[in-house]
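Table 4 source record.
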Amino acid sequence: MGFKKGRLLIYMLIAVLFAIAVPSAAHAEPSYAKYGKIAMQETANKYPDADIIDYKYEGHFTAEGSRTEERFKLWLRGSGAEFGVRVHIFVAADTGQVRDVRIEELRG
């Protein structure tokens, strides 16, 4: 009888540990999240009459000089049309500070 209670207690402790650990890992933001917010804000500023309806992180790239690039593709809907934009965020490699943001329309 003592063996079954001990075993049950171990299973309960494992379940509690998973319940505590798993949500924190599941809610961790990806490393590009802060740049994604910038991409969406800059796009909303440039296209105030359009709604952002989709978002895709395209990756981290080496740029010229001591900069890196975070690249995003956003899909917008406005004025009866849908179109995409690619947002290039150039970042200082050593500090992570944004140096330049370029938005390119992908109509076509």
